[in-house]
Amino acid sequence: MQLHISPSMRSITISSSNSNGFIDLMKIKVAARHISYRTLFHTILILAFLLPFVFILTALVTLEGVNKCSSLDCLGRRLGPRLLGRVDDSGRLVRDFYKILSQVKTEEIPDGLKLPVSFSHLVSEMKSNQYDARTFAFMLKAMMEKLEREIRESKFSELMNKHFAASSIPKSLHCLSLRLTDEYSSNAHARRQLPSPELLPLLSDNSYHHFVLSTDNILAASVVVSSAVKSSLNPEKIVFHVITDKKTYAAMHSWFALNPISPAIIEVKGVHQFDWLTRENVPVLEAVESHNAIRSYYHGNHIAGANLSDITPRRFASKLQARSPKYISLLNHLRIYLPELFPNLDKVVFLDDDVVIQRDLSPLWEIDLEGKVNGAVETCKGDDEWVMNKRFKNYFNFSHPLIANNLNQDECAWAYGMNIFDLRAWRKTNIRESYHSWLKESIQSLMLAYDAENELHKTIGNKVCLTAMDFSLQNLKSNLTMWKLGTLPPALIAFRGHVRPIDPSWHMLGLGYQNKTNIENVKKAAVIHYNGQSKPWLEIGFEHLRPFWAIYVNYSNDFIKNCHILQS
Length: 568
Fold this sequence. Notes:
Blueprint: E1 2-5, E2 11-18, E3 21-29, H1 37-63, H2 72-83, H3 90-105, H4 119-129, H5 133-167, H6 171-186, E4 209-214, H7 218-231, E5 238-244, H8 246-258, E6 265-270, H9 283-290, H10 292-299, H11 313-322, H12 330-333, H13 338-341, E7 347-351, E8 355-357, E9 374-376, H14 401-406, E10 418-422, H15 423-426, H16 431-460, H17 466-480, H18 488-494, E11 499-501, H19 519-524, E12 527-529, H20 547-550, H21 558-562
Parallel strand pairs: 4-5, 4-7, 5-6, 9-11
Antiparallel strand pairs: 1-2, 2-3, 7-10, 8-12, 9-10
């Protein structure tokens, strides 16, 4: 930057250099009349004082890209507001609006406030009614709260509908059971002995690989057996013991009699055909199935008496899952009686009916359980919160004194669904007695909670608001109930000290919970487990995970076709 005074002393020019030469920033012309040297001196002194500030502003503007300005007018437009102290008011407006929102946040929405149905209607009403910022803030708050309520209601409705869908029997599966039952009564071939008489000794031959499957779902059972046989390197060494209830026995027997899966050996038995399964041996389970309080808890209205405003959708989903009717089914508890049901067997693999076998399971019989009873995959060492990050605190109510005094909430949980059981080691333990004892305590706690709830309803009546009553009920239930799910928690206690962890690749869980299951991990797993509500035979099953199960369904079978079990 240069200061140039003309020889005639009639003009003073301030210029700046750039790549194109010099640019005149400021030029002061002096009138022709005589100016004293004192005045000129003062003028130069003032300019000398202002020049550093001009230089600094010019540098700032240049750094912000104003170096492209090629005229004094351009620079003036940039520097003018700064020199005159004019700033952008948008920041102040935003701060004022934040202040209004903070005030409105703690205030009640005015009664009778009519809400627009959409954002476009809101804008239209603001223009026509000239709303001030405070009114707009109230409108915005009311619309957001209404939207949040509708979303919550929709989510809870979705969860309830999904729970009902998961707990119900699809029409096609009911049809399959009825048609096969009719076939059992009319077709002698459907009633043929399973297995044939000459193969009966193999049912207790410990040189074979024995699988146990307890289910009343014929289609699911066919997939488990078929996938195990097709994935085996030695299918001729497989023996399947399929256990079902009395109402499903004829249909289950018909299916495997009419659709043998050679060369595997398949036995189908109903619970009524086991001499050991008497009321004297399983009194606790008899109570589970028959007590009104228990049946009401699992089959009753899951919404009545619940304060949904104080519960998250995820927790509500967990509670619904915990109240699935399957948890009071005798078939779901049968695994605890394996040593008594199969007294001649030394080792078995127990499978749930919602699994698919994708790899040869023969090596399971070679695993050294190190004197333990149960070979299982642990579920506390993964990142997935739904399935593979479970400890005792996820299953038990540690506000209950009996639980708090006997269990460690950080103890690792393990999975049912694919377990290798050493029955010889099991028979030397008191696992069954411990299971019965804890299950009995749980039933008593649940009945106390049920009776307390009924008593509270009688005594409170209409004297207090519903919210207060709900709060009291939740406290009663939280203090009295011991755990959520019906079969795994008592097993977690009964098998403490008797579990041998096996490699997680043997058993992949969560295909009925998670839509974002890693497909590559699914392909690598030996057994995939559709635990959760989204079973592959239901319409709510995940479409991209269903093919791993569906490839083992014989869609050409006449019973399958006539019941309209269609390939997805």
